[in-house]
Predict the structure.
Amino acid sequence: VVWPIVPEVLLVLTVLAVPRHWLRWTATALVAGVMGGVATLALAASGVTLPQPLVTQPMRQFAATAVAADGATAVYRQPWSGVPYKGFAASAGEAQVSAGSFAVHSAVARGGRFVLVAGVTALVAVSLRRWRRFYPAAVCVLVAGFSGALWSVVTAWSP
């Protein structure tokens, strides 16, 4: 709930390695992510402030405003905003949003995206299985691309 982890990146890495387990890993990532969100919500509702590295004050404000306006459904704004899920979960806890409602909306909002990312990655991995020896290079490219994208998002949200 603290580390800057993006489940889609981990899904791509694991599904590229062994595409036949894409659905199992998607379900695992979804359940773990929702549980982390609910845990963050519960801690924030109890007054516990967790460290949120790479979450800027403008990101926190955006999430708080969205949750104040939309409650648990604010989580649908998360992927396109660039604000980490944990920011929305903490804001939902501070706003005393129902954990059950937040879990359901999180599962729907994140589940479709996880299935799409993992499913497409599985199709790509199966069609490119002849070139599996390039997996380490693909990991390097993915990590470098993700790092650049993360840096861009954090920089864009920096005060």
Q: What stands out?
A: The chain is about 70% helix and 0% strand. The helical segments are 7-17, 22-45, 57-70, 78-81, 85-94, 99-127, 135-156.
